[in-house]
Amino acid sequence: MPVNIEIVREEEQRLAATAAKAAEQRLAVDNAGTSAEVARLRETLDEEELQVLEHINGKLTLKEVSRKAGYGSFAVAKIVARLSHAGIVERRAPPTFV
Description:
Elements: H1 5-24, E1 26-29, H2 35-44, H3 47-55, H4 62-69, H5 73-85, E2 89-92
Antiparallel strand pairs: 1-2
Helix pairs in contact: 3-4, 3-5, 4-5
C-alpha cells in the first residue's frame, strides 16, 4: 500500500510541535512523600529513572533536566512519561504573566 508523504510530513510536524511544547513545561515531583515512600522508590526505579528524578524540582524544563542528568531529551521524555504514568511526577504549565 503506498504511503501518503503529505500525511507523514503533517504527523512529523504535529509531533515536533508537541515535543517542543512539552519541553518547555516545568517538571515537578508530584509529592515528596514519606521516607518510606522514598525508600520504596529507590528500590523500584532503575538507575536512569533515579538520575532523572534527582533533577526534577518544579523549576527546570525537560530540556534542562536532560542536560543536568546527562541523557538526551528523547530518553528523558520517555523516562518522565513512565514516572508520570506511575504518578510520581507531573508536568506544570509555564507561568503566565498578566
